[in-house]
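Q: Two folds, back to back.
A: First:
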Amino acid sequence: MPRYRRIVLKLSGEILAGPGGYGIDEKVISSIADELVEVQKMGVEVGVCLGGGNIFRGLAAASRGMDRVAADYMGMLATVINSLALQQYIEKRGVATRVLSAIDMHRVAESFIRRRAMRHLEKGRVVLFAAGTGNPYFTTDTAAALRAVEVGADVILKGTRVDGVYDADPEKSAAAQRFERIGYLEVLQRGLKVMDATAISLCMDNRLPVVVFNVGVPGNLRRVVTGEPVGTQVGEMVDA
């Protein structure tokens, strides 16, 4: 039985790029679509928030001299491309999907309206939250936290390339230790790269738990949703 009734899965654009590091890897996006469909068919209401770093990274472009606002909007458009791609792969598997964009673009996506998003979720449609928050200077981590709070999700699932939250970068340090559980405040105080500080603060203020796990392991999304001890749990329950 699912532990969560309604989830928001946060995926970086880099996940979609796969080993190539750029664009959309067909094997990766197919695998993600399979996992999402499996969870949806368990009766879980599924929202997804994608990054756009596999196509364009606004912050990186700004650091090279591009206007930050323009660069961030370009990054938002990249998330729309990723959302439209994932929509196609999910719908090929027979599950209805809706892309809801924070930037109005009626020819390719519906505009994000909270009550509309909730209605789609209630009808069993997978909802893809695109274009971040629609505002520059905010990451897609913050967008995922905001959308999860708005639609009343039970949890944010942060799909990454590693199997949880570590006290150091496990790809660089063999001595890095993984946390099974960690509190919001400790994440902020340690400066751990779970989600950005705005996103973690929003989750903390609204008591929204976060589970960080390796989305590249087949079946992990289902395991997290059914409550198996996968990845790292971030929440207020360990702050005391």
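A: Second:
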Amino acid sequence: MRPRMRHILLVVACVTLVLTASPGGVLAQGRGGGDGASSTPRVNLNAPGEVPRKGPPAPAPRDASGRVVLYGTPDGKGIWMPVLEFGAHLLPPTEIPFQPWAKRMYEDRGVTQLEPHTRCKPSGGVRQLQTPYGVEIIELADAKRIFLFDVGGPHTYRTVYMDGRTHPSSVPPTYYGHSIGWWEGKDTLVIDTVGYSENFWLDRKGLPSTEHLHTIERFTRRLLDTTDYEITIDDPHTYTRPFTAKFELRLEPAIEPYEYICQEANYAEQLMIREGAKNEFGSDFIP
């Protein structure tokens, strides 16, 4: 065999071995407990690929009072990645109690894909936790604050007030809203948020919401690398009743926040226009 042909075959064999051993991007996992055992396929949106466990699951870290902490590993490293049962959907569309206008908008967003997140806008609600780059959770006990940092995209963070305050009587609408939190027992952080704007998608597939949106989230860390996430969505102007969705957050212990360049004026106009039609904002471009 000629040397050039041997070289080509060797390269092909190496690439095949890497792709087989390390799929990355999208991983199928079993449904159920933190050990990944069971059969319903789920999708891990982690772009680098999930780090497999070595040995039995480790318990969740706790502070001196016995309460769980939500940062990563005991040395403070790690980013939380979403593992979803329904691909990028929060729930199957048939299980979401849409108001008629909201269903039409949801379906149109599925066609246009004009998501503000793709243009470096902050992602409120559950969408913040569905990015393939994950979030970092930092608790400052002395300041009575918890921060959720977006690793990718707009370089923003969400503040959760843990000092016992209530929501103000009037909250200027923002992407992240106004969040207050408290601990439920030793294992679960509860976050109550109001004051959202309408400038983001509520999940990756385009769930709409209005300024009447109210969310209750629960973070229950049951293992070192597993936190159960639950959100109850209540927006009577968008949905006929409140509804709840759940998924897991899995820890990538070897990853720390890294630079993500969100270029100014990168409008990608060929992706932002649906030919021959107006988008939901009534214009050809989204500001």
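Q: And?
A: The helical segments are 3-21, 100-112, 269-272.
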